[in-house]
Amino acid sequence: MKSVSEQIDLLLRGAAQVISNEDLKKKLSKNIPLRIKLGVDPTAPDLHLGHTVALAKLRQFQDLGHTAVLIIGDFTSMIGDPTGRSTTRPPLSREAILANAKTYQDQAFKVLSHDRLEVVFNGEWFGKMSFAEVIRLSSRVSISQMMQRRDFKERLQAGTDIRHHETVYPIMQGWDSVMVRADVELGGTDQLFNILVGRDLQKDEGQEQQVAMLLPILEGLDGTQKMSKSLGNYIGVTETPSDIFGKAMSISDDLMWRWYILLFGKSEQEISQLKNGHPMEAKKSLAQALVERFHDSEKARQARTDFEQKFSKRDVSSADLPALTAAASITALDLVMSTGKIASRGEARRLIQQGGVELAGQKLADPQASLTPKTGDVLKIGKKLFYRIA
RNA sequence: GGGUAGGUACCGAAGUGGCCAAACGGGGCAGACUGUAAAUCUGCUGGCUUUACGCCUUCGAUGGUUCGAAUCCAUCCCUGCCCA
Q1: CA of A281 and C1' of B31: distance in angstroms?
Q2: CA dist., res. A316 & res. A378, Å (int)
Q3: CA within 13 Å, CB half, A345
Q4: Nucleotide nearest to A350 (CA to C1')
Q5: CA-to-C1' distance for A350 and B52, Å?
Q6: Which of A72, A225, A315, A387 sits 20 to 30 Å CA-CA off A195?
Q7: How would residue A82 be classed by pLDDT, with cut points 50, 70 and 90?
Q8: Is residue A95 exposed (0-12), middle (13-18) or buried (19+ Cβ within 10 Å)?
Q9: Which of the nucleotides in strand B have any atom less than 7 Å away from a protein CB atom?
Q10: Considering the entire predicted model, what is its pTM?
Q11: Are residues A71 and A195 in the same domain?
Q12: What are residue A119's DSSP bridge partners?
């Protein structure tokens, strides 16, 4: 096992806040594997890079010899974490939760190691609790304490309703920490309150208190807003190698360094070393590393080669492109529409008129022009869509 | 339950009888420039077509008034705020 200071150096990279550094150091000094808790809500079926920030941190702990305790919130997700929400969220059905949990694990293992891992469902203990126990547990947290949470306070002020069960959520999350005897709990910065409740409850139970390690929110492709599905600025972990690679290449340089730190735990020295080279090289390496993480190294190399051919060398002659069957004689408009990727004929018309469509290297200008596409010709629509005529 | 302000395109927000497919901003898409980056500039951004100031659908819902309605009237649904 690495020395405490080496571990600290690695673990603190990218962390937004740790409560407290001293506690963490003390725990590490015991030189026995720590139990690192990460609770996840199986509410959304697909993970994106934003979700993997905490997973990557958890993996770091695993690599240092600590035990990852992944809590699947099958029970808590029936409530829905109110964190960051301005409205009560609709509960999920049992079946949906279990199906999501399965998908979640499959995807999480692209980042996590199977070694030194425990996966538990919190229904194991919450499902058995009696109402009396629930009341006893609830009595440990005061309402005014609960109302200190920013999202509750704001909702209260804004006059939107807060349902009673939502205030129970932090208590349940805290109780999870007690049940798994967590040494460290990971979470986004918005999880501060919930994780601190865990510390309180552990203290009440006579346990050593967990360290709260908060990780920053990952910015999405646009570089400003948080990565989220609804904003469409995300990279999903199940996306194809070329999509992951291409999307990663489209981010700004500033964002690239953030991703290096948050997703790959790079140190300041490593970053400044990368900054000495060409930024595009650094970005390609990042993109390649991402593909490797979610697929494999062979596919990552392939994605990079394809990308370089398609874009850097602008040579698509040998690249692997989706095939498109076209009639011997067809108008430019119909050819573009036959890809099925363009929403309306009006949009296709606009693309052509604005010079966004090329066939065999020739820009098309007239939507009505009659074309005779040959087998092997490449159709390029906009920046990202490529087809080879079959 | 009472009062009050509202519901407009992906989002925000103008428009209060014809010049409204609906200003403006954001977002998105495309082009130029680049490192297919960012920033910047330009264009586009409901659908269809024979691309025309043509047709169709749209301004919470349904009916109505009118030659003509996002705009006026009626009923209904939903949301915020204040009071109880």
Answers
A1: 26
A2: 7
A3: 6
A4: B44
A5: 17
A6: A225
A7: low
A8: exposed
A9: 27-32, 35-39, 43-51, 80-82
A10: 0.79
A11: yes
A12: A70
User: Shortest CA distance to A72 belongs to which of A111, A95, A100?
Assistant: A100
**Torsion (CA) A176, A179, A183, A184 in degrees, nearest 10:** -10
Whether A161 and A23 map to the same domain: the answer is: yes
Q: Cβ–Cβ contacts within 10 Å for residue A184, how many?
A: 26
Q: Same domain for A211 and A352?
A: no
Identify whether residues A332 and A281 lie together within a single domain: no
pLDDT 10s digits, A245-256: 989 998 999 899
Residue A252's nearest nucleotide, by CA–C1', is: B38
User: Which chain A residues 227-256 have CB under 7 A to strand B?
Assistant: 232-233, 246, 249-254
Instruction: Name the percent of chain A in helix, strand, coil, to the closest 5.
Output: 50, 15, 40
Residue A342, domain CATH: 3.10.290.10
> Per-residue pLDDT tens for A135-167?
888 888 777 777 777 667 666 655 555 666 777
Nearest nucleotide to the CA of A248, by C1', is: B37
In this complex, the answer to whether residue A2 has its CB under 7 A from any atom of chain B, a nucleic strand, is no
Q: Identify whether A340 is part of a domain.
A: yes
Nucleic strand B under 7 Å from the C-beta of A382: yes
Pairing of strands A357-359, A378-381: antiparallel
> Over the stretch A22-41, which tens digit does the pLDDT of each residue have?
899 999 998 899 999 999 88
Residue span of the structural domain in which A245 resides: 241-312
The predicted structure's pLDDT at residue A57: 94
Question: How far apart (Å, rounded) are the C-alpha atoms in residues A59 and A294?
Answer: 14
Examine residue A229 and state whether it is found in any structural domain, yes or no: no
Nearest nucleic acid nucleotide to A337, CA to C1' distance: B48
Question: In the block, which residue shows the tokens 């690192």?
Answer: A36
Cα separation, A324 vs A316, in Å, equals 15
Domain count, chain A: 3
Helices (H), A40-160: 49-63, 94-108, 123-126, 131-138, 143-146, 150-158
